[in-house]
AcrR family transcriptional regulator
Amino acid sequence: MGNKEALLAGAKTCLLDKGFDRTTVRDIATAAGVSMAAIGYHYGSRENLLSQAIFAILDEWGDIAGRALIPAGDDATAEEAYIRMWDANLEQIRAHPRMWLVSVDLFMQAQRQDDLRGILAAGMREGRSGLAGILTSTPEEDVTDETKRTVGMVQMALMSGVAIQLLSDPENAPTGADILAGLRGLVKITE
C-alpha cells in the first residue's frame, strides 16, 4: 500500500474513532504510518482527505446497509416486507453505529463547505431514487420524479430520524412494526 492509500485508510480509522472535527493531521499521519507532509502532497489538506475518507466509508457501508433494504422475494405481504426491511435496517444501525455517526458528521461538515454540500445533495437525490425504487419494486430508472420526491424522501427522512433516535436512546428504539403503526397513526390524523 502506498502513502496515498495508507493516508485514506488512516483517515477512515480516525473518522470512525474521533469524528471529523477531532481528527488532527498528526492523528491521520500516525494511523497511516507516514509523515504529516504527505497529507498536503497527496490530498492538499486535511479537510480534502477527510471528505474523501467520509465518502469512502459511506460507499463501503452503503453496500452492507443496502442489502438490508432489499425485500426478501417470498410470499410476504407488503406490510410484512416493510416491517422486515425496517427490522433489518435497525439491526444494521445497531451493528454499525459509527457508520451512522459518520453520515451525521458529513451533514455537519457540508453546512460549512459548499463543495461538500453539493456532493451531499447529489448523494441524497440518488438515495431517494434508490429507496423509492426498492419500496415500489420499480427499476430505479423507471421511478417517477414525484415518487422520488415523496416515497423516497419520506423513507430517507424516517431512516435518518429513526437512526438518530436509536443511537441516542437505544433502550426505547422502535421496531419495524412500531414504525409501520406510527405511519398508520399519522395517516389516521389526516382522515
Q: What stands out?
A: The domain at 1-49 is CATH 1.10.10.60 (Arc Repressor Mutant, subunit A).
